[in-house]
Write a structure and sequence with these properties.
The complex is a heterodimer. By secondary structure, chain A is of the alpha+beta class. Chain A is built from 8 helices and 9 strands. In chain A, about 45% of the residues lie in helices and about 25% in strands. In chain A, strand 2 and strand 3 form a beta hairpin. The chains are: A alpha+beta, B mainly alpha.
Chain lengths: ~325, ~180
């Protein structure tokens, strides 16, 4: 879809551009006032002139007031952007697609997808987009999952937060029935060594899932596969499916993780930035940022065709 | 003295480890074959129903149908070797594929729900057998590697373990079955 040729979307964008200007104006004003206020307070204290400090305090308060006002307006603007702009743009790709920006994939679902072995200590997910492409229902959401490590230093306890995933988790109904769990994770030094040990010395195998040695060298170079059922893993990961997953991975910046569980396929895409957020200091009428959002949606929507999930020639219809 | 004893114990433990792993790998191969066997049985069980359904609608496909019926009775006999079973399955695959192609001439049969269910189950069994065969080949490769590489080769020689041939790839394993080919060709 070309955003510029979509007249109804352009009308919405022009309307919202007014709201954006209001928010950006308020934010700029509040930053200037608060910044000025802090400078006056510091100047007043430094020179010992109390009225200057008081003036600075007043400016700071006014700045904070404007900031809170800007925050309220921003929430309205963000709501309108997601409800009107993103929702309309989604419809132009597929009529069935909708966005629920308050909700995302739940922490429980994220854990039970087994995409990552690390359990999150801090978790947030939003911007759930869902729909049905042909016979396949799908959804995807932005996820930020982190875990915590604590170290004891001279100055006491120190917490460190590490990212498990910052990106998008895609979930779709798979086109074949299966009962076990099959997980495809990026191959790195640590996991490759772990897989080697558990293969050579089964006693050290920590999980109930076994390493699956697949035939595709390209696939094995990128991923490690574990499954509770060796035959089922190959039933899901046919040579064609392995090739498709490699293609999908080639089109993503970072290596993806995939899991097949409970009749569904989950795919995690690590990403660098937040998507589906309205610009504040850049014009809404510049199609660049919205195009980036739509590119992500098209990519996610394209997975169903890429993985051929609408081919229902097996018993699952 | 103690050092020698430790060395002997360590060597003994390593030896037992290698021996056990070879046995484990050989069992894995047998296990993988039994997985194929289960899938073949499932597939052979589909045949009576499939034949009956097709018989009701088709009148001119005697040759193809009688070939499938003949293969079905062969598959039913209990004293088949593993390779005979695989061979029958191969012939059945092409026989049933031909049968499915003739369905184009019988719109009533094509619309029959029972037949459609059988068709999808058959396709599924095809993929499941392909998966089981790939699993078998993976187990065989693992076993062959273990008995050919040092130090496993020493034990394999003592146990008289021989290399096992992998199963040749079938058409289904090389390419993904496409709906278009199955239903519209």
């Amino acid at each position: 879809m070309d955003i510029q040729s979509n007249t109804s979307l352009q009308t919405i964008l022009v309307e919202l551009e007014g709201q954006r200007r209001l928010v950006s104006g308020l934010k700029t004003r509040s930053f200037l006032l608060a910044g000025g206020g802090v400078a006056f307070i510091a100047g007043g204290i430094y020179s010992g002139v109390v009225p200057v400090s008081i003036l600075g305090g007043i400016l700071l308060i006014v700045g904070i007031y404007f900031l809170s006002k800007a925050g309220k307006h921003f929430d309205e603007y963000r709501h309108a952007f997601k409800h009107q702009v993103i929702a309309a743009a989604l419809k132009s790709i597929d009529q069935s697609m909708e966005i629920d920006y308050h909700s995302g994939i739940s922490e429980q679902d994220f854990i039970s997808s087994q995409l990552f072995s690390q359990r999150p200590d801090r978790y947030s997910s939003q911007d759930q987009i869902y729909g049905t492409a042909g016979k396949t229902t799908f959804s995807f959401s932005e996820v930020h999952a982190e875990y915590k490590t604590v170290t004891q230093t001279k100055n006491g306890r120190q917490e460190h937060w590490h990212t498990i995933l910052k990106g998008i988790v895609f979930c779709a109904d798979f086109n074949k029935h299966f009962h076990g769990v099959t997980i495809v994770r990026p191959k790195d030094m640590g996991s490759a060594l772990g897989a080697w040990i558990s293969e050579k010395i089964p006693l050290f195998s920590a999980s109930s899932s076994d390493f699956v040695k697949l035939e595709s060298p390209e696939f094995n170079k990128k991923f490690l596969t574990y499954s509770t059922d060796q035959v089922e893993a190959r039933y899901i990961l046919t040579p064609a499916m392995m090739e498709r997953l490699c293609n999908l991975d080639d089109n993503s910046r970072y290596t993806i993780s995939v899991s097949f569980i409970g009749s569904q396929v989950f795919i995690a895409f690590p990403l660098d930035k937040d998507y589906f957020e309205p610009p504040v200091f850049k014009s809404l009428l510049d199609p660049k940022s919205l195009n980036e959002d739509l590119e992500v949606v098209r990519f996610m929507y394209g997975i169903i065709a890429e993985l051929d999930l609408n081919t229902r020639i097996w018993t699952k219809q | 003295m103690i050092v020698v004893a430790i060395v002997i114990v360590v060597l003994l433990i390593i030896g037992i480890g290698i021996y056990n792993s070879l046995i484990g790998k050989k069992n894995q191969v047998a296990n993988a074959f039994s997985a194929i066997d289960v899938m073949l049985k499932k597939r052979f069980d589909l045949l009576p129903n499939l034949i009956e359904t097709v018989k009701q609608y088709t009148t001119y496909e005697g040759d193809i149908l009688s070939k499938v019926v003949e293969l079905r009775s062969k598959a039913g006999s209990s004293n088949l070797s593993d390779h005979q079973k695989l061979d029958i399955d191969k012939q059945l695959s092409s026989g049933v594929r031909n049968l499915m192609l003739t369905v184009e001439n019988y719109p009533d049969l094509k619309a029959n729900q029972n037949f459609l269910n059988l068709q999808t189950t058959w396709t599924e069994s095809e993929e499941q057998i392909a998966a089981a065969r790939r699993n078998y080949n993976a187990a065989v490769t693992d076993y062959n590697d273990a008995i050919m590489m040092f130090p496993g080769s020493i034990f394999a020689g003592m146990l008289n373990y021989q290399q096992i041939a992998v199963l040749a790839n079938t058409e289904e394993e090389r390419k993904n079955i496409s709906a278009k080919e199955l239903f519209n060709s």
